[in-house]
Design goal:
2 copies of one chain form a homodimer.
Chain A: H1 8-18, H2 21-25, H3 28-31, H4 38-64, E1 67-69, E2 72-74, H5 77-88, H6 106-119, H7 121-140, H8 143-154, E3 158-163, E4 179-182, E5 188-199, E6 208-217, E7 228-233, E8 235-237, E9 243-246, E10 249-254, E11 265-270, E12 277-281, H9 293-299, H10 301-329, E13 331-334, E14 343-345, H11 350-382, H12 386-422, H13 433-440, H14 450-461, H15 468-484, H16 491-516, H17 518-521, H18 524-527, H19 529-559, H20 566-583, H21 586-596, H22 600-603
Parallel strand pairs in A: 3-6, 4-6
Antiparallel strand pairs in A: 1-2, 4-5, 5-11, 5-12, 6-7, 7-12, 8-9, 10-11, 13-14
Chain lengths: ~600, ~600
């Protein structure tokens, strides 16, 4: 089996050289616990674990999958070991849990976590969900809730889930029908309903599972605003933290999926015997029946959604590294420009190298974009400079839909290309790339479909705060171009970037006009929203990687071409050139389509889509 | 389980209304056997079979797959039944076999075969390979070969394979090391070597398997020109057609693939005990060691490669029909433009409808392109007008790489979108779309990778016959625009088409200049070849579907909007508008990139791709 390899150099570049990590490590929350010197050690340690502990179980999980019988899910034993290993040794939830002393900056945590996700995405999703549940309890629970639950979740004894989706309420979570009935015990409710697509909803990783459940209290308003949030342990937890009786939560099935076969996607029935108890989080419904359950959940969503994009990026990156390695080893065919020179490795073929650089450019561009998102979240969450924190919060919120959607959509295409580089063997399960293709596809649906995020961008993020955060965001783009455009060696690239900026500015104007005339133009808003998102994402990714390339070029000038890092920096410059000259021009094309505003999709009779 | 549905109306439109099938049915080879009135009957019959006999086994094959033990492959029994049913009842190889009285025009055969491929691609590949092998024997074998083999292949008793690839010779088949040694028996050779990726190489469908094997005779020249072609039956066939002893052909393994799990992809060892006999096809190697094995195989390749594109099209079409149906049934969310109207079916959401029309436009555009290819092949093969046959042969050869590659590459993207329409359930194996994604991916690799076809286009097809066939092809495009551009209602579309034509013309000029200055510009030829192919394919598909839309619009004018066919025709007009206004402009974008000729992919140091 091919060995796992990952571009730890690029992660170190981002943290040690590119982002202003002095600022991040200087934040009060972190300054006594972590310092810049920790970066290399942490990344090196985790890279070793990713190679030796985590990646080896990835294929096993895919082949064996999980077993479901009598309401119980059984994972391959190696998964349980790996889960406990990471959680107990402090490489899991503890490092991203707000209530933990070991809390790391997201930038740092996510850098090492990226390698673990790449090595086994089915495993890391259990950790991610546990962290999410613990963070919800930390942020919105009572002191008692925190004491009862968090420690055991962070140390791997208990795992956690988020329960939103129902059989008849997916993207429209406001239509949920799960109910919460008050009991005589204040704060304790009886929960009744069915939830589906619950990652880790039933699993033998841990002795207890803490479900965070959206449910509508009696008398709650309809729609999403009536939903409350409840802590529903699989096994009841006594006030002293000891385990009580089993709660009335039953796993009634798991999904048979295309990929992520060791990630248990459960259908859960709560309160089938009217005996499922949940602890209310936050205040009860107000006099108008409104609860804050969904908004509490959404509070965690920016990180979670950027994290989903990051998950997609990590898988596409892993597939790319495998394909690149294979391309240097596999001898196949002769050069077009020099056929007499004999057979050559695949990478010598121009189109193969083009595919590889396309993957590299997408990976590095998206990674750069994502880490800027985490950087903004670090500042937004922890900076004492409230003005700056607010600005960064706005920027992170704008980036969230871009990252989530662009990374997930691009991953499907790029992993398809990784299979292509392998040729026929890439289609077999002997090599790891086909599993990545199967594992990654869900990420354009998880945590909101691409369309939902596109509407979040044009409907909310571009317009929130009277449009100030988006104007800030656009202004940052413009300023980057103004400040750097005379940088030697990137003249053509800055011209292209400026043109793409202009396209996005025009699109923004157009969308403002649509909102101003919603009766006449409203239908165009959702019709072209996803294209708008793609344009914004490609503009931002292009800028980010160009910014990196400028730094890399300076490093080359400083260190010379004989330095052992020369190859890395030269590769970075080429990634940026490829991205801007080959990928970014898609923005011009999309902008034309948006302005052209063809409505054939809306005019086509619905019946024309149906055959019988 | 969802019921199989297919757009039989579009197939009927192509054969009954759009293509000049009078010309095809008037060809000497067909005029006594088939007539236009047969079309609807044949399509209706096969559609019923596809629904009732073939589609029901598709999921079973995926779930159960095949078993391999002791050198034997066991298929799910339903596969064997379905194979025999189609072959014995004359719905398989007999209809596309040159030596058969039932030979149909490809246009007709392929129209019904499309539904069978869509219903179960793993099944139809066995039929396709059997036909291919039988056609090779018919065209290049002796009378005795024909008598010994063909009948039993066409009636389903024996199946066939094509054996090209070896562990160390994939895309570069000329590097094959399988050998053929003469025996005392004239025309009989001993075969020794290993072949891999042999579809149907070992399978329990039939009592014998007829392998068509490329091997290098002793003293054969190196490279592809030294390869001969041999008939190697799994069980030796006596001169009277009866079965003899087992030949020395052993299946040493099957691939575990991402999809097509009921399609046996075998590794075969020939002559491990020095006792594998093969019958030479064609003449022995000439004095320079040259044989015609590969060119004989390639003679069948145009149809086979268009067929691979057609296979991709059929799967993407099936996934689209399933997704469209689901979108009309599944209630989810509220309209952006009218949220108070309550929950609506998915198809009402603008972006969902946009995805559906994109799939529809791609499906219909590619299908139109493919059937023009089959039409050209029918004329090329059977017309008594030699001039016309030659012209059509040239056009079919140009279309071959376009169809094969554009269909296969687009299918991966479009089936990904079909999963997206379903949302979370699309990622589960309860619905058919994820299987299509897994099944289809190999088609961009089978029968030559996308890059190989791109080089075939720019290196051979654009330049063969002093460039006359490609000039004819371009001229046809120009003439279409000139003749139809004033057609009312499509003014904007013709402007766009003319612009795309101009782009392709400029690209062609540029490539001619590259070939004229290969020393300086040669590297750009392979670097941008795939983009060139995409431009040509999108131009041709756009024209084809626009041509259909003009006809559809005329039909609407004739029949009125109350006619039961109105929806179909209106949908066709919208498909064309969507294709030309949203997909075709990609040609402008690609043409810009080609002209810009960025070489970052070639400049990037190889070491920059490798991480460790």
């Amino acid at each position: 089996m091919a060995e796992f390899a990952y571009d730890i150099r690029d992660l170190k570049f981002i943290l040690n050289e590119w982002l202003d990590m002095d600022e991040v490590f200087g934040l009060d929350r972190f300054k006594d616990n972590y310092e810049k010197d920790d970066i290399d050690f942490i990344l090196n340690e985790v890279y070793k674990m990713a190679k030796e502990v985590v990646f080896p179980i990835n294929k096993e999980g895919d082949e064996i999958g999980l077993k479901f019988a009598n309401g119980k899910v059984t994972l391959p034993p190696a998964y349980i070991e790996a889960y406990k290993f990471l959680q107990e040794n402090g490489w899991g939830s503890a490092n991203e849990s707000l209530g933990s002393d070991e809390l790391m900056p997201l930038t740092l945590y996510r850098a090492y976590n990226e390698m673990l996700m790449a090595a086994c995405p089915a495993l890391t999703s259990y950790i991610k969900l546990t962290t999410g549940a613990a963070n919800l309890i930390y942020r919105f629970g009572t002191d008692q809730d925190r004491e009862m639950f968090i420690e055991n979740m962070l140390n791997g004894q208990w795992s956690g889930t988020m329960c939103l989706t129902e059989p008849n309420a997916g993207s429209d979570v406001g239509d949920s029908t799960t109910r919460a009935y008050p009991t005589d015990d204040p704060g304790i409710y009886k929960i009744k309903g069915t939830k589906m697509f619950i990652t880790g909803g039933e699993v033998d990783l841990s002795e207890n599972i803490i479900h965070m459940v959206l449910a509508r209290p009696e008398g709650g308003a309809p729609g999403s605003k009536g939903l409350g949030l409840y802590i529903v342990p699989k096994i009841w937890v006594n006030e002293d933290g000891s385990l009580g009786e089993p709660n009335d939560v039953v796993c009634i099935g798991v999904e048979h999926k295309m990929g992520l076969k060791a990630s248990a996607t459960a259908m859960l029935s709560f309160g089938e015997n009217d005996n499922c108890r949940g602890i209310l989080v936050g205040s009860p419904a107000d006099s108008e029946g409104a609860s804050k359950g969904l908004s509490m959940m959404f509070h965690m969503m920016n990180e979670s959604r950027i994290g989903t994009g990051h998950n997609a990026l990590s898988q596409m990156a892993a597939a790319y590294y495998f394909a690149a390695k294979y391309a240097t080893e596999r001898i196949q065919g002769r050069l077009f420009t020099n056929p007499k020179a004999g057979r050559v490795p695949l990478i010598k073929h121009e189109d193969v190298k083009r595919i590889l650089l396309e993957m590299k450019a997408q990976v590095e561009g998206i990674r750069a974009m994502i880490f800027r998102g985490f950087y903004y979240l670090d500042i937004a969450e922890h900076s004492s400079d409230k003005e700056k924190a607010k600005r960064c919060q706005g920027l992170a919120e704008i980036l969230t839909p871009l990252i989530k959607t662009y990374a997930a959509e691009t991953a499907w295409q790029m992993i398809g290309q990784a299979i292509q580089v392998y040729g026929g063997v890439g289609y077999t399960e002997e090599y790891p790339v086909s599993q990545y293709a199967r594992d990654v596809k869900i990420l354009s649906i998880w945590e909101g479909t691409s369309f939902i995020h596109a509407m979040d961008l044009v409907g909310r993020k571009m317009r929130m705060g009277d449009g100030v955060p988006f104007a800030n965001w656009m202004n940052d783009r413009k300023e980057f171009i103004e400040t750097n455009k005379n940088n030697e060696g990137f003249g053509a690239e800055f011209n292209r970037l400026a043109k793409a900026y202009q396209c996005v500015a025009e699109i923004k104007e157009l969308y403002s006009a649509y909102y101003a005339d919603k009766t006449q133009k409203g239908h165009l808003i959702p019709l072209y929203a996803l294209r708008v998102l793609t344009c914004c994402a490609q503009l931002f990714a292009a800028e980010s990687i160009l910014d990196q390339a400028i730094l890399a070029k300076r490093k080359i000038e400083e260190l010379g071409t004989d330095h052992h890092d020369y190859t890395y920096y030269a590769g970075k410059v080429n990634s940026a050139k490829f991205f801007i000259n080959n990928i970014l021009p898609n923005v011009y094309y999309q902008a034309e389509l948006i302005k052209n505003a063809d409505v054939s999709a809306l005019e086509c009779p619905e019946e024309a889509f149906i055959v019988s």
